[in-house]
Amino acid sequence: MDLAGVAADLRRVTVELAAAGHAVGSGVVWAPDWVVTNAHVAPHAHLIVRRADGAEAHGHVVARDRHADLALLQVPGLGLSAATLAPADELRVGSLVVAVGHPFGVRGALTTGIVHAMGSFVPGGRSWIQGDLRLAPGNSGGPLADVRGRVVGINAMIVGTLALAIPVSDVTRFVRDAG
Amino acid sequence: MDRLHALSDELAAAVQQAGRAVLAVHARPRLPSTGVHWRPGLVVTANHTVRADEGLTVTRPDGRSVPATLVGRDPVRDLAVLRVDVADVAVAELGDSDAVRVGHMVLALGAGPRASWGVISAIGAAHARSADVDLFSLDLTLYAGFSGGPLVDAQRHVVGINTSGMSRQMQLAVPASVVSRTVDALVSHGRMPQGYLGVGTQTVRVPAAMREQLHLDQALALIVVDVQAGSPAAAGLLIGDVILALDGHAIADPVDLRRLLRPERIGQRITARVVRGGQARDVELTIGERPARPR
After folding, report:
1. Looking at the complex, does the CB of residue A161 fall below 8 Å from at least one CB of chain B?
2. ipTM > 0.90?
3. Shortest Cα distance from A32 to chain B (angstroms)?
4. pTM of the model
C-alpha cells in the first residue's frame, strides 16, 4: 500500500467535529456509531460530526476525562466502520507514522514523520507517543497511525515542533471504563 | 511486506543500531547534549555544549553515569573529544561521508534514544561563517539536546555529527571523515592545528589598466592590508601587494584563503602570484601553524 492508500483508509475513519457552527477538531471512529476525540475538542455536550464524504450526524458526549484529555461521543446513524488499531508493542523510535486531520480547516490533510520518542517527559509522568511530524490545532482528536493505516494514538498536543499523541492502550482503557 | 512498511522497519532498526553508541553528555547546566562513542574510549560531542573543562559526566545507553575527561576542542568545527571508560558500550559504525549526496534520507539521534528524520538539503561550506570544510545542511529538526549526536544514513551508519551551534538558521552536520581527522589531531596534540600565513586581506577590484597590462581575466583579487611580524607571510609579502592567485588558482575572497589553510597543509610550500609596483611576480611561502595565542 502506498501513502495515498493509507491516507484514504484513515480519512474514512476520521471525522471533523463542529460546535456552534465552528470546526473544533478531529475525531476517530472507535466503534460503529462511537467516536473518540480529545476532551479539549469537545467541551460541549452536543457536536456536529462530519464524515469525509460530507455527510453529517449529531453526536453527544457520553464520557469526558479532562486529565486524560479524552472524550467519547455516541453518534447514532454515523454509518462508519471502526478504525483498525495497531498492536501495542510494534511501534518503535524511528517507525514511520502518519496523521490525518483538519489543520487550519484543511479537510483530511495528511502529514508524515517518525516516532521521535516514547514514554514520559518526567519520571512517573504520563506516557506519550512523541512524533517528529508537523501537526496543527485542527489535528487534535485525530488519528496517528502506522504506515499500514492502523491507529497507534490520538493526537492531542503540540509542544514546540513535537507532536504528542495519547497511546491507543490509554484510549482503550478510557473507552472501557466509560462503557 | 510492502515497501512503506519495510522502510518504517528499516528506520526503526537504524535508530536502534546507531543508538547503541549514543550517550548523553553532561557538560553544561540543565540541558544535556548528545555524544557518540567514536573510537574505543573516545566520545565526540559538539564543542559549544561543553561549557566546563572538568567535572564532566556521560550517561551510557543503559542509564549508568560515568565520569569523562576533556581530550581537546576544535571550536572551528564545533567538536570536542572526551575520554570515557565505556569498554562495553558499542562503538559507532562509521559510514562513508564522502558518498553522502543532497537528497539522501537521514536520521538525527539524541540520547534516549530520540530521533528525527529528513534529508540532506545541501553540502558546502557557505552555511557557517567559520567553517573551512564542507558541511551537511539538514532538512530535519535538531531538537533540544541533539547537538553532538550522530547523523545516520539509510545503511544505519554514522556519517556525521549534528550541531545547531554553528549557524543561527541552519541545522548542520560535520561529515564523519572530518570528525575522524579532528579526533586524530586532538588525541595527538590536544588541539586542532590551524594553517597560518599571518596575512590580513580584503577583496579589491582589479583596475582595468592593470588587467590590460598584465593580460588578466579576473575582476577581483585580494589586497594585503596586514602582515604579522615573524609570520610565514612576512618572508615574502608586503602591505599593498595584490594577490591574484595561489598555486595557480585565482583567489578573490578571504574565505578562499582560509579554506586553503587546512591543517594537512601545514609545512607545505605555496606559490602566490602577486602584483607589486605594477609588476606581477611569484612569491614562495611556507604555510605555518597558527600560534596558540595571537602574536
Report:
1. yes
2. no
3. 28
4. 0.84
